[in-house]
Design goal:
Strands 5-8-11-4-12 form a five-stranded parallel sheet. By secondary structure, the protein is of the alpha/beta class. The chain is built from 17 helices and 14 strands. Among the domains are: 57 residues, no CATH class; 163 residues, P-loop containing nucleotide triphosphate hydrolases (Rossmann fold, 3-Layer(aba) Sandwich), CATH 3.40.50.300; 68 residues, Arc Repressor Mutant, subunit A. Bound molecules: adenosine-5'-diphosphate and magnesium ion. The site of adenosine-5'-diphosphate has 18 residues, from helix 6, helix 12 and helix 14.
């Protein structure tokens, strides 16, 4: 199993860049950084102490794992620790989650995080760890659904040399790595039954043995589990042990899906844009109508899907204004020009135009209507191949009115491809 690592390199940034280059040629599992760089990042960040604390946490982990401060090992997850610290949102649902985090963090109680995929279960788990007295010790995540069942036992509890074919040396498991800290059992609903029994024993007796060893190891680990599955029905169908469920579910926290807290959308978009600012060197501005469309979308992939959309829009429209018409089709369900049956004579757009929902936080009506108007004019102009008179027909408005609006919104009108004679199409 490959490990990811940060190699702490002293020296100037040129040297570090060269080392990074060389490292990336050798392995994509090691990154280089120096303490000054990490410190500067921490100083510049708005989340000063948390990020620096995470760095200290990583160093503590490294010292514990390697005996000394050799290359700093971190969990397999290569995402920036900063990403996990912030839990953006102030909706009622998320405030309840934050309250629950603060209530449970101090104790050693086992926590069960429930919620759809992408709602932020790992972010919450890291926050619980961070706010707990264990924060200076390791946070060790393991995805129980991603590891083949025959490897899961050794992954969790470690093994001795020769314990099974391929065990060429002895190895610590995640429980040992998390000693004094927190073990995050992600996708616990996917854990095979045979492992569920073994996990139950550790939770009850607080000790375990490595595979191939008879020596009992004491475990001082706080367990946080998470699943997107409905564990009640898993129990009913015999896939999940009820006794384990009660052990793990001492303090359940349910993270609401994004569609139930659309008030958080603007803050999340801002946060995701900030995260990508350095990487992409660009920003985008979403118009009010684009935001309204996003608020109405159901977000089956939750915040993870939103993050992917923002990244996609940044690539497509760097440093531009993103309007509803620029959003990929599935995100703009209520002004779908494609939905119109244009072949039907006398068909009026308003027949198939479903009324937008007023967002919970209200909206700037003037700006919203202007955005919608602008977007529809742009679409009509594309449809009319740049011929303003034709666009005016599509919009059932007078040509002169449309010309005025085109000027008002400073829209670019592409001249008709066929008859272009150097004249500006607005005057056609
Ligand atoms: N409230 C939030 N604030 C900021 N980022 C979030 C929030 N919730 C989720 N994310 C981001 O969304 C992505 C998915 O979160 P994650 O915790 O992995 O979800 P889950 O474990 O529920 O599938 C991550 O990039 C995470 O940083
Ligand atoms: Mg997850």
């Amino acid at each position: 199993m490959t490990e990811r690592g940060i190699l702490i390199v002293e020296g100037n940034s040129e040297q570090r860049k060269r080392i990074e280059c060389l490292l990336s040629a050798i392995s994509d599992n090691i990154v280089a950084a120096d303490f000054d760089h990490l410190r500067r990042m921490t100083d510049q960040s708005q989340h000063k102490s948390p990020l620096w604390a995470e760095v200290q946490e990583l160093i503590a982990t490294a010292k514990q794992e390697s005996g000394q401060s050799k290359p700093v090992k971190r969990s397999k997850d290569h995402r920036s620790p900063e990403l996990f610290r912030c839990l953006v949102g102030s909706s009622h649902g998320l405030m309840q989650v934050k309250k629950a985090i603060m209530q449970v963090a101090d104790s050693d109680t086992n926590v069960m995080l429930l919620g759809e995929s992408g709602t932020g279960k790992e972010v919450v788990a890291r926050n619980i760890h961070y706010h707990s007295p264990r924060r200076g010790r390791p946070f060790v995540p393991i995805n129980c659904g991603a590891i083949p069942s025959e490897l899961l036992e050794s992954e969790l509890f470690g093994h001795e040399k020769g314990a099974f074919t391929g065990a060429i040396s002895s190895r610590r498991g995640r429980f040992e790595m998390a000693q004094g800290g927190t073990l995050f059992l992600d996708e616990i609903g996917d854990m095979p039954s045979s492992m569920q029994v073994k996990l139950l024993r550790v939770l009850q007796e607080r000790c375990f043995e490595r595979v191939g060893s008879e020596k009992t190891v004491k475990s001082d680990v706080r367990v946080i589990a998470a699943t997107h599955r409905d564990l009640d029905s898993q129990i009913e169908s015999g896939k999940f042990r009820e006794d384990l469920y009660y052990r793990l579910c001492v303090f359940p926290i349910t993270i609401p899906p994004l569609r139930e807290r659309v008030e958080d959308l603007s803050a999340l978009v801002e946060c995701l844009l900030d995260r990508l600012k350095n990487e992409r060197q660009a920003r985008i501005t979403l118009t009010e109508s684009a935001m309204t469309a996003l608020r109405r979308y159901l977000w089956p992939g939750n915040v993870r899907e939103l993050a992917n959309l923002i990244e996609r829009l940044l690539i497509m429209y760097p440093n531009q204004r993103v309007d509803i018409a620029d959003l990929p089709g599935k995100y703009r369900p209520h002004i779908e020009i494609e939905q119109l049956d244009r072949s039907a004579p006398g068909h009026h757009a308003d027949n198939s135009f479903s009324c937008p929902q007023l967002p919970a936080g209200g909206l700037d009506l003037r700006q919203y209507l202007a955005d919608v108007e602008r977007s529809l004019i742009e679409q009509a102009l594309v449809e009319a191949d740049g011929v303003v008179a034709r666009a005016a027909e599509i919009l059932r408005t007078r040509r002169t009115t449309l010309v005025e609006k085109i000027r008002k919104y400073q829209l670019e009108v592409n001249p008709p491809r066929r008859e272009f004679d150097g004249q500006v199409a607005v005057n056609s």
